[in-house]
Amino acid sequence: MIEKKFVNQKLKELHVYEYLYSKLARTGYSHAEIKRTPLGEKIIIYTTRPGIVVGRKGENIQKLTLTLKKKFKLENPQIEIGEVKNQMLDVYYVADRITSTLERFGHQRFKSIGYKTLQEIMDAGAMGAEIVISGKVPGARAKRWRFSAGYLKKSGDIAENFIKKAYAAAKLKAGTIGVQVKIMLPDTKLPDRVLIKEPEAKKEEPQEGSTKKEEKKETEKKKKTRTKKEKSSQVEEEQKEPGAEDGTDKKE
After folding, report:
1. Which CATH superfamily is domain 2-84 in?
2. What's the rounded Cα separation, in Å, for the pair 99 and 135?
3. What pLDDT band is residue 212 in, cutting at 50, 70 and 90?
4. β-pair partners for 45
5. Which of 53, 86, 134, 171 could be joined to 144 by an S-S link, Cβ 3.0–4.6 Å?
6. What are the tens digits of pLDDT across the range 9-44?
7. What is the pLDDT of residue 121?
């Protein structure tokens, strides 16, 4: 009975996520989270355009809360808006952006769209990325076009749990075009990654011979300065007139 309760709860959350995606698609919607609190369910919607999601004076939020209460039988849903920090590292946003551009400009420019978004993802700091566009592109027969860059794991635990994946569909006149996006984030820890530390520059210790030479040079400089001072003092004494010390002047 307890297992069935948890399964039903997760199914309800899945239906809520699908409903939010269908309603908030093409509005910069990324994803949503449901957290259980003593006051009720707390639903956090992550989006790049919070103004469109909230609506004028919160109209869209009020409509969403009413539908969540009636359709999904949530007791007290509280909707909050979350901020997406880096847009181009969010797979849901990237997939939604590609589908919206395909619906706007058509499938003729799919190559430029794929390469441009891939370059923006790599510029944002991703370790690797892959975009797959499948469907009747550009001819009448269905094909798969793959755009990839960087380093991306294809198998193992990292590929299953640490690579972000998202799927979206663009509805065109020629048919439906599927978009798949995979991104390996820059903070992913790889087991086969080896970091080579550069050796620190060692300070050169002065050798004994060099120190002795420096000391000799200093002593020679001191001797030279002393001899110069003595010579200058002798010249000054010779230039003095005789009798100037006694205070008497010689008269002819």
Report:
1. K homology (KH) domain (3.30.300.20)
2. 12
3. low
4. 32, 81
5. 134
6. 888 889 988 898 888 877 778 888 988 888 888 999
7. 94
Say if domain 88-184 classifies as CATH 1.10.3630.10.
no
Parallel, antiparallel, or unpaired: how do β-strands 176-184 and 29-37 relate? unpaired
- AA letter at 71: K
Supply the DSSP symbol for 203: P
Q: Say whether 88-184 and 2-84 share the same fold.
A: no
Residue 237 has pLDDT above 70, yes or no: no
Check if the beta carbon of residue 165 is closer than 8 Å to that of residue 180: yes
Residue 117 per-residue DSSP state:
H
Nearest to 146 by CA among 166, 130, 163, 157: 130
**Where do the structural domains in the chain lie, given as residue ranges?**
2-84, 88-184
Q: Report the pLDDT value the prediction gives residue 242, as an integer from 0 to 100.
A: 53
Position 169, amino acid:
A
Q: Which of 46, 37, 44 is nearest to 75 (CA)?
A: 37
Residue 174: how many CB atoms within 10 A of its CB? 14
**pTM score:** 0.67
- Whether the pLDDT of residue 211 is over 80: the answer is no
